[in-house]
Every structure is written in structure tokens, then in C-alpha cells.
Amino acid sequence: MSRIATGICAAIAIAAGGYWLTQSNSTPSNPLVGSAEAQQTDLDTSTIIEMVQGSADAPVEIVEYASYTCPHCATFHQGTYKELKKNYIDTGKVKFTYREVYFDKYGLWASMVARCGGPEKFFGISDLIYKDQSKWTRAGGPAEIVDELRKIGRLAGISNDQLDACLQDGTRAQTLVVWYQENAERDDIRATPSFIVNGKKVDNQSYEEFKKLIDAELGS
């Protein structure tokens, strides 16, 4: 079984039980995964917002599939992505769509924090999550990891109450996982980061290789 397939099974099991943070005196305690509730079957994945940068009518569309717990994804976002954004996304040549992959509960929780500020803050929060990936993923147990993710959310201007609401939204967690499964199966995603460039699947590569590929699509 591929890591993506394993991730789908694990994430569905996690989301089926929901996600709750118990609190005492407004201090987050252990996150609890799992409950007696059955997985919902009437989830509407159209409620999940696609996170997009660049011009809507750009001649080249790049869709990235990535996991917040994937080291190669962090490397891409701290290097190649920044060059692509400066030279192609911000100049109207590329429409960039980011879609999360969930290998584990921590990647799902990171996604829920990143989405908590809405589309306006999503990419900024994602940048912080990737920048500090080695810190928050190694913070300790689930409670410590959630605490580090909450710190990132607060750095982005999200209140504790907002973060609580986002992280305790079990229905949204389930919907995100089903949305991820639908995307991964449709686009045959088997590793991260993976990319779809104008409808064609592309593996992770250097900025120079991406540049050649994009320029060919642009006819330049």
C-alpha cells in the first residue's frame, strides 16, 4: 500500500471520530481523537474552498498536492515555490492551487489551522507551518504539537476562540478528508509533493525544471 493510500485510510479513521480539544481555564489540554459517533455519509465537499493564488485566467495552471508533515514539501515551499511565486504567479502567468494531503492527524490539524484564517491568510499561515515544520512536528505528544500549531495561528492574528472553533469542528475535519480522498483518487496522487500542470501530472523538480516546463506551456 502506498503512503498516500495509507494516509487516506488513517485520515478517514481520524476524521470519522472527530477532533476535540478539552479545555481547563482556557489552556488547551490533550487533543482527543475518536468518539462513539459514526462517520457521516452526507458530507458536502463543495463547501471546501480551493486555495488559489494568481490570476484566474492565467495561461498556466499548477495544482500542488502536499502534506504539511512532508519534509520534501517544506523544502519546495521554502525554495522553488518562492521563485515560482515571484516570477510566474505574481506576474499573472500561473494560477496556483494548493491541495492538502493527509498522511496523519498532525497534517490534518495543521490544515485546519491554516484554513482557520480563510483564503486571505491561508498561504501566509502555510508558509509559517512549513518554515517551522521541524519544530512543531517534533514538539512532543499531540497536546504539544497542537500547542505549537496554535502559536502559529496566533502569529497570523487568529484568536484563541477562533482556533478552538476550527480545531473542534469534527464535521469540517471529516469533510476535508473526504475532499482529499476524492482529489487524490481523481488525479492519481501517490506521493508528495506532486503537481498537475495544465492537466498533466508532474513529479517534484527544481525551479529550473519548472521554469522550462512553464515556459514551454507559455510558448516562450
From TrEMBL:
Q: List residues of the Thioredoxin-like fold domain.
A: 50-216
Q: What's the short name of a Pfam family annotated to this entry?
A: Thioredoxin_4
Q: Which SUPFAM superfamilies match?
A: Thioredoxin-like (SSF52833)
Q: What domain of life?
A: Bacteria
Protein name (Swiss-Prot/TrEMBL):
Thioredoxin
- Supply the source organism for this entry: Ruegeria faecimaris
